[in-house]
Amino acid sequence: MILSHAGKRPEIHPTAWVAPSATVCGDVVLGKDARVSHGATIIAEGGRIEIGERCIVLENAVIRSTARHSTKIGAFCLVGPCAHLVGCTLEEEVFVATGAAVFHAAHLERESEIRVHGTVHLRSRLTSGTTVPIGWVAVGDPAHLLPPDRHEEIWGHQMPLDFPKTAYGVEREAAGMRVVTQRMADLLGAHVDDEVVG
């Protein structure tokens, strides 16, 4: 389903393909020969989403932007099934495997790779050619690669990156779930006026 949002409608190259069960919403640009498979969701909420030439977005992947963070995916990237990307930048020829996550203001340089269920935290940068192993976490700029059982060390790198402020614009001390969910409710409430355009 192709939807307009906040006065913006997707721009889809004539050679691109979007599965009938996928959703593309708002200020989204799909490049030449891009493919968006069944169940994938691409939603621009304030910031733009650009998906480059011959990018492949597989089943049930979610790609989002926010008012604070646009998303840009360079040419020849592959986003695997059930992956989640929000407000990040992928340079060319990046591979994001099944179930991987890339968060706000992260930057993945050319030919980097996130393997199955890997995570790249917000404001983190993978240098060109870096691989995040299966289930591992990349955090920091440049990213430290850590296995998931080293939570305290991951948190030591992640805490200064300030998720509440970066993602929601809320100071950590004020970032209770009542505040966060109110902001999200207001944001998502704006979709009430979305219209099907194709």
In short:
It contains three helices and 24 strands.
How do the helices and strands line up, and which of them pair or pack?
Blueprint: E1 2-4, E2 11-12, E3 17-18, E4 23-25, E5 28-30, E6 35-36, E7 41-44, E8 49-51, E9 56-57, E10 62-65, E11 71-73, E12 78-79, E13 84-86, E14 89-90, E15 95-96, E16 101-102, E17 107-108, E18 113-114, E19 119-120, E20 125-126, E21 131-132, E22 137-139, E23 144-146, H1 151-158, H2 163-168, H3 177-189, E24 195-196
Parallel strand pairs: 1-4, 2-5, 3-6, 4-7, 5-8, 6-9, 7-10, 8-11, 9-12, 10-13, 11-14, 12-15, 13-16, 14-17, 15-18, 16-19, 17-20, 18-21, 19-22
Antiparallel strand pairs: 1-24, 22-23
Q: What do these coordinates show?
A:
The chain is an alpha/beta fold and 198 residues long. The protein has a single domain (2-196), classed as UDP N-Acetylglucosamine Acyltransferase, domain 1 (3 Solenoid), CATH 2.160.10. The protein is 14% helix and 30% strand. It is globular, with a radius of gyration of 16 Å.
Q: What's the structural domain tally?
A: 1
**Can you count the beta strands?**
24
Helix and strand element order: EEEEEEEEEEEEEEEEEEEEEEEHHHE
CATH homologous superfamily caption: Hexapeptide repeat proteins
Span between termini: 7 Å
What is the global morphology? globular
CATH architecture: 3 Solenoid
Q: Name the structural class.
A: alpha/beta
What summary fits the major beta sheet? Answer: 10 strands, mixed
Q: Calculate the mean pLDDT score and round it.
A: 94
Beta-strand content: 25-35%
Count the helices. How many?
Answer: 3
Fraction of helical residues? 10-25%
